Amino acid sequence: MIPERTHSQLVAVGLGPGDPELVTMKGVRAIEAADLIFAPRSRTDEASRALRIAQPWINPQRQQVIPLTIPMHKDPAQAAAAYRSIADEIGSRLSALAAQRPQGVARGAYLLLGDPLLYGTFTTLRAELAAHYPSLVVGIVPGVTSFAAAAAQVGLPLSTGNDRIAILPAPATANELRTLLAQFETVILMKVGSKLPQIIATLDELHLLENAVYAEHIGMPEERIVRDIGSLRDYQAPYLSLLIVRR
Amino acid sequence: MIPERTHSQLVAVGLGPGDPELVTMKGVRAIEAADLIFAPRSRTDEASRALRIAQPWINPQRQQVIPLTIPMHKDPAQAAAAYRSIADEIGSRLSALAAQRPQGVARGAYLLLGDPLLYGTFTTLRAELAAHYPSLVVGIVPGVTSFAAAAAQVGLPLSTGNDRIAILPAPATANELRTLLAQFETVILMKVGSKLPQIIATLDELHLLENAVYAEHIGMPEERIVRDIGSLRDYQAPYLSLLIVRR
């Protein structure tokens, strides 16, 4: 019998919102099993976040950490080029290591916050890897989402019975938000950032200020969760912030 | 200084979709730290599910497992009475144990599938505990959701860029589904069950059959994930099933 051909693999590990305790057992094992740990960052302070979470399970004696800087491009062509070059870095590093191995196989873990398929940049990278490194086996470990962690911190139900939930980046207009709140019992606004004052004004109008929770950097040392969102009218929210409104 | 008064505590542990590897480190520690493990079941086969997942971390020498049967009542008054009696069982068991302890404190873990605040029955139980056992400290450990795990299994993106996601129990009419699919890039239908044939017919009409994934019992030995949902027209889906449609 001809032995089945084995391939190098990359596992995208959803580390959850930021608290190292919210990493799953499967995530821990994927990190521990990797030869190369890829730590992407979109800003200079972000690599340290994913890496800080994964650090306890990384053994520098036998594992190598490779930081990857993912530039933030609004232009799709530029973004594609950037991901192409990251895919090349991952693909070539794994191939080079596999070539040194008797079995010709190397294992990588790609660290990321939250869940790999819920927002974030992994989907774009995955398309580039599939196009240019088709023999690389890509696995995905799901992670706890930031909104589930924020809700757990304050005990806010996300849905009961037949409730409906909408999840979206903070909408452009007050009208959109009004329409959503008429249709859904729970609205989760991601990437709130500079839209916070306008959202607060709309919720105030709808008498929903008391039903909202604001959260930023969930599970991290700089975590901030605010129930009295009326106090945030002049607050400059960071990009990585969310708001859960329960009707 | 008078020592701060300590209270007994109950931690609701979201065990994730069913794969024991998808339990978080925090969940494992909450199970290990508990004196009493409460294993609710809504049907006879469900206690074994939550318990089967948690079992590797339970030590029968020093921990007691208490099965709780949660009856499925459609009538709100009957449901409230049922949860009141479950709250009483949890409260009285923890109190009785705490009374035997020098420090007067006992710790419980309440096991549940998925995430404690996303659908499920924990929200009702928590309200009863808060009303009748106000000194009991209730903590919540978030869990990986079944839809994130299903998406990870097949590599289906849930959202990229500014995509919007709607999560809801399978809707009553084809029109509702059509409206949702016009507004949201991703629609996640929970508790699909008997509505599957009607949903398939609607997706067929909208030429979206190829963009959908059907999943049941995610992460469990009986897991079934189907991408060719056209093949499921005559399938009797169980209640614990979901469908992800990506426009």
Distance between the termini of chain A: 63 Å
- Reading the helices and strands of chain A in chain order gives EHEHEHEHEHEHEHEEE
Say which CATH homologous superfamily of the largest domain in chain A is assigned. Answer: Tetrapyrrole methylase, N-terminal domain
Question: What is the number of independent domains of chain A?
Answer: 2
User: What would you say the CATH architecture of the largest domain in chain A is?
Assistant: 3-Layer(aba) Sandwich
Largest interface: A-B, 47 and 47 residues
Summing up helix and strand content along with how strands pair, one would put the structural category of chain A as alpha/beta
CATH class of the largest domain in chain A: Alpha Beta
Question: Could you give a quick summary of the protein structure above?
Answer:
The first copy, chain A, is α/β, with parallel strands linked by helices.
Fold topology:
2 copies of one chain form a homodimer.
Chain A: E1 9-14, H1 25-33, E2 36-41, H2 46-54, E3 64-69, H3 76-100, E4 107-112, H4 122-132, E5 137-141, H5 146-154, E6 165-169, H6 174-183, E7 186-190, H7 196-205, E8 212-216, E9 224-226, E10 241-246
Helix pairs in contact in A: 3-4
